[in-house]
Write the structure tokens for this entry.
Amino acid sequence: MIDYGNLPTQPLPVLSGPERAPVRPRSGTVARAGGHLAVAGIVSRVTGFAKTLVLAAAIGAAAVGDSYNLANNMPNMVYELVLGSVFASAVVPVLMRARRLGRRHSREFTQRVMVAAVLGLAALTLVAVLCAPLLVRLLVAHPDQRHLTTLFAYLLLPEIFFYGITVLLTAVLNVRDSFAAAAWAPVVNNVIVLATAGIFVLLPGPVTLTPAAMTTTQVLTLGLGTTAGIAGQAVWVVFALRHNGFHWSWRVRPIPYTWRPVRAATPLLGWILGYAAISEVGVAVTMRVASDHGGISVYTYAEPLFQVPYGILAASLLTVLMPRISRAAAAGDRPAVIADLGRGARYLAVAMIPMTMAMALLGPVLTTLVFTGRVDAASARLIGAAIAASAFGLAPFALVMLQMRVFYADNDSRTPTMINLAMVATKVSVLALSAAVLPDHVVVVMLGVAGSASYVVGALAGHLLLRRRYGLLGFSTVAVTFTRVVWASALAGWACLIVMAYTRHLVSDPTIARLLTLAGGAAIGLAVFLLAAKAIGIPEIRHARTLAIA
């Protein structure tokens, strides 16, 4: 009988017979998985963008919007900064190592991890809900806004539990080489919240929304409906796991058997909790600065748009790469780890650098076009300025997420925590300096810039630490790809600027001008980029259709 409290952390021998170690997936498998994830990512981001617009139209960017968005940002930031990346990246290698011990033992260990995680998430969520008034008091300076924000916090903080369940079960699916089903879960959430916003608009209530005028029914509908969306995506993943053949059994006794994987993972969990605590300091400072300078809603609406390119183009690649890197690390195959790291970095550069140029040039046009009439004109312009100013952090952000996965695959949770400490220190420093010397509207823009600056610091630190651990990483090919993509993106950017200038000169109606600028700039920019990439020679562009990364 295997002692699950002592899972090996060194490379394991390849087993033979029916319980042999799983082989690395072939390129066709990875290509299909990546393609399915990309489609799901596109639908998820489109419906998510629609959700953002509908919510903005329903509650605006004033006091009510700020209260809702601040309360909803608490669990959302826990998910985005900890559960969605760090926790998932740490769990997959642990489950992958257990799987190498054999299918039966892997299933039993996974059951124990799931029971332990559910108990831990329930306790964490309960503490968060009980501390809602304290959290709001720390983040909201205006007493008149605290009451409504606290009510929303009570209703929205339970999302932490459902976010955790979703991430945990998605990790189990990924270890079982199932990627597409869980990728559709955010669509379920978006549809439920869209329906909630529709119901909210139809409810009787004041013509002008203010924190004091909102009815109890409106507060409950918006709060419970939003939480129901996160619960819905968790239920979707539960059914996906059952469809995959894994049945979640509660017959495993919580104590003492569940304690064994917890005991084995205590060093890992300790550093992850440290990562979470450091991240929450950054979140708290960001939210407080945003609240003090009237930028909660602007930041909340800008941040999902910043995440769109990563969610569609990068997250699918990283999701497929994580089990591969974990298998290679568990087998002690360092060349394979380095190969996947370089391969991932090249494809991320090809995906993120052109999007950086596009967001910097077209982001303000997009936000002015879609948010005008839903929020006030000044807020719409600030959202666009925030996206354009922070666009430089897209590629470093994606690279940091890749680097974190390599560290966790190597059973190292300490290094990501130390990198995160440097990142949060950078963010807090930039925000403190901005709040001290800049006017309010510029501080609101700097909220996103501070995050992007922290990603640059994190990417540099991660590269240096990975090089010290693995030696030469073979990033000369990454540098070549990076340089070529920058040149192609620069040519596309100039073409986009020409289109924007001619459109504004020839079309007098501002709405039509923005629409033509967005469509023409994106189309011409994409065409020029692809032509330049072909002329310069970027092989990743040629292979992108099939994601041939094996």
Observations:
- The longest helix spans residues 334-371.
- Residues 19 and 103 are 6 Å apart (CA to CA).
